[in-house]
Amino acid sequence: MENKPFELTPLMQRYILHWGEMGSRWGVNRTVSQIHALLYLAPEPLNAEQIAELLSVARSNVSNSLKELQSWELVNVSHKMGDRRDHFTVVGDTWDIFFTIIEQRKRRELDPIMSMLRQCEVEMINDKETSAHVRKKINEMHGFLDGMLVWYQQIATLPRTSLLALIKMGTKVIHFLPKKKTK
């Protein structure tokens, strides 16, 4: 029994194209995002030639994009008996992808910002030239980002069922917070 070749339906094409558009808005190469979307929808691992053919992009572009996806830890490489080519799949399910992207963005973007803010605060100790206003703004940004990162780390360790319950609660969770006192 021979496997039917994997083909993209019009709906799948719209999904992949839109994911590519969204990726470019998020600062990710369009082809990288399209390949990720394709692999997410694919019922089985695909090799680079299949990806290039399905998306009508150059094989070299596919290779570079797959390397980028691997550096983001968003795809896995696997092999098939009798086939020397690498085959690619997305890592995990939707939740795994979400947290992998968040963690990678944190590592690539927020961690360097936090390092710079910490360095600024150290330098401000002996800095006589920087105004109190600027110092306050830098301290506020550091405090805000630090708080958000602590919150993210707490959320990321929740069991998925607890996280889903929290999300479903939505704004109802506000009822559990202390009431603001009026004067």
Q: Which helices and strands appear, and what pairs or packs with what?
A:
Elements (H helix, E strand, L loop, with lengths): L9 H16 L4 H12 L4 E2 H8 L3 H13 L3 E6 L2 E8 L3 H31 L7 H25 L3 H10 L14
Helix pairs in contact: 1-2, 2-4, 3-4, 5-6
Q: What do these coordinates show?
A:
- This protein folds into 2 domains: 10-90, Arc Repressor Mutant, subunit A (Orthogonal Bundle), CATH 1.10.10.10; 94-166.
- Helix content is 63%, strand content 9%.
- The chain contains 7 helices and 3 strands.
- The chain has helices at residues 10-25, 30-41, 48-55, 59-71, 94-124, 132-156, 160-169, and strands spanning 46-47, 75-80, 83-90.
- A 3-stranded antiparallel β-sheet has the order 1-3-2.
- The longest helix is centred in the middle third of the chain and has 31 residues, at 94-124.
The overall number of domains is: 2
Terminal Cα span: 77 Å
Strand content: 5-15%
Q: Radius of gyration over alpha carbons?
A: 22 Å
The CATH level-2 architecture of the largest domain is identified as: Orthogonal Bundle
- Order of helical and strand elements: HHEHHEEHHH
Shape: extended
β-strand number: 3
The level 1 CATH classification of the largest domain is Mainly Alpha
How are the strands of the biggest sheet laid out side by side? 1-3-2
Number of helices: 7
pLDDT averaged residue by residue? 92
Helicity level: 55-70%
CATH topology annotation of the largest domain: Arc Repressor Mutant, subunit A
The secondary structure category is mainly alpha
Largest β sheet strand count, sense and barrel closure: 3 strands, antiparallel
Low-confidence stretches: none
CATH-level-4 superfamily name of the largest domain: Winged helix-like DNA-binding domain superfamily/Winged helix DNA-binding domain
